Amino acid sequence: MKGLSAINFSSSKVLVAGDVMADTYWVGQTSRISPEAPVPVVLVDFEETRPGGAANVALNIVALGARTTLVGLVGDDAIGDEIARLLTQQGVDHSLIRVAGARTIRKLRVMSRRQQLVRVDFEQRFANVPIKEKLSPIELRLLDNDILVLSDYAKGFLGVETQELISLAKAHNKAVIIDPKGMDFLSYKGATLITPNLAEFEAVVGPCGSDQDIVERGINLREQLQLDSLLVTRGEHGMTLLERNAAPVHLESRAREVFDVTGAGDTVVATLAAAMASGASLREAVELANVAAGIVVAKSGTATASVGEIIQSRSATAPSNQLRKVVEPEALREIISSAKVAGKSAVMTNGCFDVLHAGHVDLLRRARELGDLLIVAVNDDASVRRLKGATRPVNPLEHRLTVLGMLECVDYLVVFSEDTPEKLYCKVLPQVLVKGGDYTAAQVAGGDCITAAGGRIAILDLVPDLSSTRILSKLGEFN
Description:
Number of domains: 2
CATH superfamily of the largest domain: Ribokinase
Largest sheet: 9 strands, mixed
């Protein structure tokens, strides 16, 4: 596998169409049983709404640093407004079709102590929306995207029009990846790839008692539906890929712990699409999707996996010593705490480091001299794009991590996805926080947390006339 270093997700453009819904969480403490009925009483501390279904697929694609457009149905209501706002806020281009007199599909989960106590569904099928009204925005945007993803939750967006969409995509040489639902897969005939979970697969082909059963029945289903490939996701047993003209591939699960499987299928199909749109082979895309699924099932509710988390998940077994320097925030907190106990000090700095130059190296070398170990926090690709513009980063995240990891002065690397590392700094609390001379102490993100914990901020002079922007501008003169 050529790895993430050869995959630049920022070049990917994926069109997602399907059933959009809202995932709402009411979270609180429970310490008593209701006197009215034998049920727990939950004192709600906060509530949160997240875009779900096809919208969660789109969010997962954006989390990888790729670009996406979402087409789906919502009601003409406040929840529909909230989904649109959240999607825009998180960088998803969308064409949500408002259905007059209808309410947005919503799943309400009541949670306490990280356990789901009950789920309440507010649901209706959008059965009366004209097919043309659904197809038109997809047809309009298809040519501008690399791959079409159909996210079918059997809520009414996809039906007889599925075959029209597959034909339309194939006419324009666009791959079609489908996350299926139900017991009738004939509507998916001719797709590039479908990704049923084991329960969905067995509902169609019958119970499978062994890997060989899955392979034999999967090949028959693939041939019957004229698919290029079939991927069966099997929970704790990993995945089975049945690719035309290739031997079956079984991948072991990469999940270290399973907390919540909500939306794991969304993550799989999103990672597959973003990777394939970037030029990865199907096998490479499946391996990345397997890692990404292992990340999201350890999170609560519908969630996403970033490139940084995928790299961190793979770094423990990475052949590259440079990538072994990449650590997760939780591990980093333990590293810094242990250093404090041992009487040593941790220094942190951050940046995009898109085009590493002598000024960066000088700053990092001098930062290392201020303590016993140096940790560099690096923006992921999506946050670089937000900060620097659509043409950045020039170098994808794994390239940037590899180069930084080769510097002797750098002890650890950590990836963050927010625009600033304030949340990370306040979590791990290094003793020294370093920024370049184009900042003041008051402008340093997370500086208040560090000084409140007894740490300090160090502002170091920069090498004059050296910047990534200047270098890129100079390179542009040779084009």
